[in-house]
Design brief:
The chain is α+β, with helices and mostly antiparallel strands and 264 residues long. Strand 1 (2-6) and strand 2 form a beta hairpin. The chain has six helices and nine strands. Strands 1-2-6-5 form a four-stranded antiparallel β-sheet, with no helix packed on it. Strands 3-4-7 form a three-stranded antiparallel β-sheet. The chain folds into two domains: 2-93, Beta Barrel (Butyryl-CoA Dehydrogenase, subunit A, domain 2), CATH 2.40.110.10; 96-246, Up-down Bundle (Butyryl-CoA Dehydrogenase, subunit A, domain 3), CATH 1.20.140. The protein has helices at residues 95-131, 143-171, 177-202, 213-223, 230-242, 259-263; strands spanning 2-6, 9-20, 27-33, 45-51, 57-61, 73-84, 88-89, 133-134, 137-138.
Amino acid sequence: MTGKRDGDEYILNGEKMWISLATKADFAVVAVRTNSDVAKLSQGLTTFIVEMDRPGISRGDIHGKLGVRAGSTGWILFQDVRVPLGNRIGEEGEGFKVTMNAFDHGRYTVAAGATGLIRASLEASVAYAKERESFGKPIAHHQLIQEKIARMARDYEIARLLYLKAGWMKNEGKRNTFETSIAKQFATDASFHAASEAIQIHGAYGFSDEYDVERFMRNARGAMIYEGSSEIQSLIQADYALGYRKDKAVRCELPAYDSQAWQS
């Protein structure tokens, strides 16, 4: 997407696919290229808050998703959309930093949600394993079933601690890109494995829509892609470990959580 300044306004053009709540939201945070004469593309991006009722905006839903079907996902098209200067977030050229900061928050929510999906897979598997019998006893007594459930229980505790650590850092006003990346990658990968094993425990019934576990697996798969794929998280973590990436001071740090301010 591109943005061209025209006096006290910017003119936005372009299209973005795979946007959560694209047809439901009243506002959108939009990063566009406002300067092409820079060494790196990231240096030429600027971010805006855009009201979705502005002339020139059209949007629609994406259908046929593998999972997360209860959530609205769509596209937004900008055709000569005029946005006032006051809608700009930060300064011109700071859009990449704004976007990366937003990822730290989006990835955190995905990590928390994936952790919940691990728990759902665990609880469904435990309930089914106790009621389903084979060879004269509940399948929960079979060691290979126990191994699958044990890993789910372990992964749930790990994922929970990882996202809670990232959440604590956010509340303290501490940078948490590295910690949130780990939480997001671990929880989403583990949730897909847990859901897959839950299907295995349910046997043929797991391959049908009679039980929820097939939905768990479809939903888990998407979280490994959006808000930064598992592969991207590996690259981020490697750069930190190798010393190629370090947190730099930003012009506007988020403050620590203040309970009194929220209550007032």
